[in-house]
Write a structure and sequence with these properties.
Length: about 325
């Protein structure tokens, strides 16, 4: 089986507990057994932030520090910035030739976001073509495995169709990737909706213990449990959903659920217990963050080395693609 893994994140802001549980924890596990390429996909960020690209650079730095602090290890995986490897743009162009517009127009994420995102003008070509660039990212590395959330599965299917179409025209050059769905439930944010940087409800990996507690303290709970003496229903409480992800003590979780149902414990008690588990997870992340913030030169070195390693694979694939297309060779 193809053991190459590719995944990426857009540098659009600080990462949060949802990214940690829903993506990074799995990425960190994979780096021990697979040949992993993880990319900070800045071209993808430009797609939505083109009117003001001023934050993309600092966001790349934030994402890199968040990744490294969480446990991605540049000795075990390749970490790089998408735009440092120009072949992403080149393969995107080649793939755009074999992508029928209907595939992109029918894509559920496109249809949904074009209606829901009101604060940005997304009537640009790149927004429609997002899955083409994403396919280029994956196919450039001939990745067999792409660990992403359910929300990305339609994009993966388009990438697979593109491979079949491209190979049908030009020969067996590209490799069909398989999706690896991360089996983590959605982490809710402080308002109970999915934790997301765009909803302003997130607990960020860079938050201080005080910030974390202030957010947890004011987080919504089971709305039917108005008074301390009212029994609650954990299954209707987003705080409980976070316990399920970060609390590693089954006996404590059983006590909390029982205490909630019988009004034996209050919501503040439950949140205090959750804080202990969130801090257990976040403290080592904070220690590593402090180390990288004190040694900023390391960040540049990691990205330079990552671009060299990723570039070597990307150039090889692109040479094969150009040869398959039958273009005149460089002398
Ligand atoms: P955001 O909604 O904050 O912009 P992204 O869409 O950039 O986050 O998320 C990238 C990936 O991180 C998702 O595909 C998913 O795997 C994971 N992820 C993000 N938010 C959550 C969450 N609240 N719960 C679980 N996983 C999440």
């Amino acid at each position: 089986m193809n053991q190459r893994v590719f995944s990426g994140m857009r540098p659009t802001g600080q990462l949060h507990l949802g990214h940690l549980a829903g993506a990074l924890t799995n990425w960190i596990k994979l780096q021990d057994g697979y040949d992993c390429f993880y990319s900070i996909v800045d071209w993808h960020a430009l797609m939505s932030d083109y009117a003001d690209s001023s934050k993309i650079e600092s966001n790349c730095r934030e994402v890199l520090i968040d990744w490294l602090s969480s446990g991605l290890d540049p000795e075990k995986c390749v970490i790089f910035v998408q735009s440092h490897v120009p072949q992403h743009a080149e393969l995107h162009l080649a793939l755009s030739m074999v992508t029928p517009l209907g595939w992109l127009q029918r894509c559920p994420t496109y249809k949904e976001q074009i209606i829901n995102i009101q604060n940005k003008d997304l009537s640009n070509y790149a927004f429609l073509g997002y899955p083409v660039l994403m396919a280029a990212d994956i196919l450039l590395y001939k990745a067999g495995i792409v660990p992403v959330g359910e929300d990305q599965s339609a994009h993966l299917e388009i990438a697979r169709e593109m491979v079949r179409r491209f190979n049908g025209f030009f020969g067996e050059v590209l490799v069909e990737p398989q999706i690896m769905l991360t089996p983590t439930p959605k982490v809710p944010g402080t308002d109970g909706k999915k934790m997301s940087k765009s909803y302003g409800n997130s607990i960020n990996l860079a938050d201080s213990p005080e910030d974390v507690w202030n957010k947890l303290r004011t987080m919504v709970t089971d709305p039917a449990r108005e008074k301390r003496t009212d029994p609650g229903d954990p299954e209707k409480c987003p705080v409980w959903d976070i316990h399920k992800v970060f609390n590693n003590s089954d006996s404590e979780k059983a006590e909390i659920a029982e205490g909630c149902r019988t009004a034996g414990i209050g919501c503040v008690d439950c949140k205090k217990k959750l804080k202990v588990h969130v801090e257990r997870v976040m403290n080592p992340i904070r220690e590593k963050r402090a180390y990288y913030e004190k040694n900023p030169d390391l960040l540049g070195d990691i990205l330079r080395e990552g671009a060299v390693k990723a570039g070597a694979v990307a150039r090889k694939t692109m040479d094969e693609v150009v040869a398959a297309l039958g273009f005149v060779r460089r002398g």
